[in-house]
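Ex. 9. Protein: WD domain, G-beta repeat.
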Amino acid sequence: MTQKKYIGSAIRHLASPWQGNIVAAALHEHTVSLWDISTGEQLSEFDTIMDFGGKRLALSHAESACLTAAYHIHGLACYNTPIGDLRWQRKDLKKIQRLTLTPDEKFACCCFSSGPGHVIDISTGETILSIRALNNVWFHAQNTFRLYQYRSYKISVVHQNDKQAFPIEPISFSILDVAFNEHYVAITEAGADVRVFDLATGQMTMRHKQPEGHHVLRISAMPGTVFFHGVQWCFRKGGPKRLIRLSPDAATQEVIYDLGGPTFETEFCNGGRCLLTSDGDLIDCRTAKLKRKIKFPQPTE
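Predicted structure tokens for WD domain, G-beta repeat:
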């Protein structure tokens, strides 16, 4: 297992498109920068309406757009990338908690603290669909399946046409993350184990028990393999986060990389092949080695 010395940064938000090497990184509020993780180069920096809390940053390579949200006054805004000039703004969409892009990156799903979820056309800013009481949504990379979490705690895996494939009984008050591969869906919940379900049958194939006081904050499928990767953290005592590898059909779970310190945020990027931390560490999930150090801005005194 590789270890590293912790060095903090001023970055508090990360967002990656479904594919590609460009990521968005943001400070506590407002300022967003775009980075090429293949070179470590900063491409641009611009001011936005984004405020702290929730998941209010998203990046679309297909639409050359960066979306940010604010809880109260400013709503939802879309900026042209890489320059960062405003494309459109929806001040009527207040109290957004989560932004999720569809796999084609042409639509954004907005989930709110109350009311229906909105599906937004990124090119125009228009609402094309509303989904009642939607709390969060995750997509299969080919958009053949999606998982809906409703504010009633109901969890449903649905087909592309929104016909339910199978329900999942929650074991916690909140889903932390969801990942699909070709045959399975993995779900991690607050203070709970990671469960894996067969997409063909809806049956649970594996339950990865987490150490006492730990849960998995983020999870992603590794392209070309059956494995999932997750970011494990001790929620009771805090401390460093760890990159783990999980099998969908065997009780195999191993720590492959120690992130070394209380890194604030992590984001799987480049289609799940890498993990990027807010400290600027880009880790190759296949080899469990540090690929590059991104020189994110440091905290100011």
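Check your answer against this statement. Residues 171 and 192 are 7 Å apart (CA to CA).
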